[in-house]
Design brief:
Layout lengths: L2 H41 L3 H25 L2 H10 L3 H27 L2 H7 L3 H33 L4 H24 L9 H25 L18 H32 L4 H37 L3 H28 L1 H8 L3 H7 L3 H6 L1 H16 L4 H23 L13 H31 L2
Length: 460
């Protein structure tokens, strides 16, 4: 291949990644804006409810993201089948994905109904802990719908058709979540003002209606008839298929869990520093999650193209697609990080009118601007590795970096365990510095391992 051909392929894959990534991005932003709406609306109800939301959302996201990560195994599996044109096998995988969602929902619901072991770490006051328990119990009713929707989303992403997923996610946000939030958080027409638990009720209603919409699209859409999803009944769980999904999905879910629990335990530890500091962390973490949707969407699109090329047996093209997607994500991350730093005052003002919370959040925004490059690098490399069905070693890298260097280092700095931490890095800032450094460490490690996997696959 000439240098000109190589440049043309890179440009082509960059264009394809961007074309696939934008609807994924819009859909993911719609999902994450559910949390933004919760935060902004609850902040205007009471500071106690905002603190309860910050703690409760951290627990819920840890459980949901870990289970959703297991469900994400469907994407590379279906992507490779689609690239290999094994269409009927895709329908069988979708049905097995439904069974997997049901099994995982049972596990997750038990954890949401009995969260005391996590709340004890936060040492939350009884009134705050009571609101959190009610919030999580209501979300247990929504979990089967949210995991079921992941089956629909994984299928559409894997076959390069994410726009209907985007349409449902945007519709659920605008037509259901925001109006229902207003109704249940603040009360209306005789309904009591529920505060934080009202967010959970709105989430549950929106989640079940979104799942129904996805099912109707699969049932009626001409595109999906090729896969033979319907007409066979749900059937029974096929344990070899479940085992294959779990072998890939469990380490993927653990890596998601490790990444999110690094933030969860930050929130649990920061809760010891008071409601104002916890609220500032919630604002910062929430906006950081919004920013993460850009590299996550690019990584998801990149992983889809890589899986399809692998399934078609085009390993050189798979490598080119992966490289193009990772480069695109890093370039955009640098620009995004700079923009956030200069616009931080206005962004914080959108979240909270409380001057104390705003002042506490201001220095934390340095970190979410700074680590965008590292975040883009690590998520891009991780998704490409998953397209190769490689997840176990990356999970170990996540554990060492995010739990060890990130959370452990943040604890040492944040609580000044060694007694020599500068004042500027004590408290929440110390935890954010540790997390930022850990993302850089795992990003470099994942890129090194990806190059090794690509070389071994090329050698046969």
């Amino acid at each position: 291949m000439t240098r000109r051909d190589s440049a043309h392929n890179a440009s082509s894959f960059t264009s394809r990644v961007a074309s696939l990534a934008w609807p994924i991005l819009v859909g993911q932003l719609a999902v994450i804006l559910n949390g933004v709406a919760d935060t902004m609306m609850t902040a205007r109800h009471s500071a106690t409810d905002l603190a309860a939301l910050g703690l409760g959302a951290s627990v819920y996201v840890s459980i949901f993201v870990g289970l959703s990560g297991v469900m994400a195994a469907l994407s590379p599996v279906i992507g490779q089948l689609y690239g290999a044109k094994k269409f009927e096998a895709i329908g069988a995988e979708v049905r097995q994905g439904v069974w997997l969602a049901l099994f995982l929902s049972l596990t997750g619901s038990v954890l949401l109904l009995f969260p005391d072991f996590l709340l004890d770490i936060a040492q939350a006051p009884p009134a705050l802990a009571g609101k959190v328990r009610e919030y999580l119990a209501l979300l247990a009713l929504a979990l089967p719908a949210t995991l079921g929707f992941r089956v629909y989303a994984s299928l559409n992403t894997a076959i390069s058709r994410p726009r209907m997923v985007m349409a449902i996610q945007v519709g659920a946000l605008l037509l259901l979540k925001i109006p229902l939030n207003a109704l249940f958080i603040f009360g209306f027409a005789g309904l009591p003002a529920l505060g934080t638990p009202g967010c959970a009720i709105a989430t549950g209603i929106a989640a079940w209606l979104a799942l129904l919409a996805g099912w109707l699209v699969l049932r009626s859409g001409d595109t999906y008839r090729l896969f033979g999803i319907f007409g066979h009944g749900l059937g029974r769980p096929a344990w070899p298929a479940q085992s294959a999904l779990l072998r890939l999905g469990v380490p993927m879910g653990l890596s998601y869990l490790i990444e999110v629990t690094a933030f969860t335990f930050m929130a649990l530890f920061i809760a010891r520093l008071g409601n104002e500091t916890l609220a500032a962390h919630q604002v910062t973490a929430n906006f950081g999650t919004v920013l993460y949707m850009l590299p996550l969407s690019i990584a998801s699109a990149t992983g889809t193209l890589v899986a399809q090329e692998i399934g078609a047996g085009r390993l050189q093209a798979a490598r080119a697609a992966g490289n193009a997607g990772i480069r695109l994500g890093m370039v955009l991350a640098v620009a995004l990080g700079a923009l956030v730093w200069f616009a931080r005052s206005g962004i914080i003002a959108l979240y909270t009118p409380d001057p104390g919370v705003a002042a506490a959040a201001m220095p934390l925004f340095f970190f979410i601007g700074f680590y965008q490059l590292f975040d883009s690098l690590q998520v891009g490399a991780a998704f490409v590795l998953r397209a190769y069905k490689v997840a176990t070693v990356p999970t170990l890298m996540y554990a060492f970096s995010l739990w060890g260097a990130g959370l452990g280092g943040g604890y040492l700095l944040g609580f000044d365990v060694l007694g020599d931490t500068p004042d500027a890095l004590r408290g929440a800032a110390g935890f954010w510095l540790g997390n930022s450094a850990s993302l850089g460490l795992v990003g470099i490690a994942l890129v090194w391992y990806l190059r090794r996997v690509q070389r071994l696959r090329a050698e046969g």
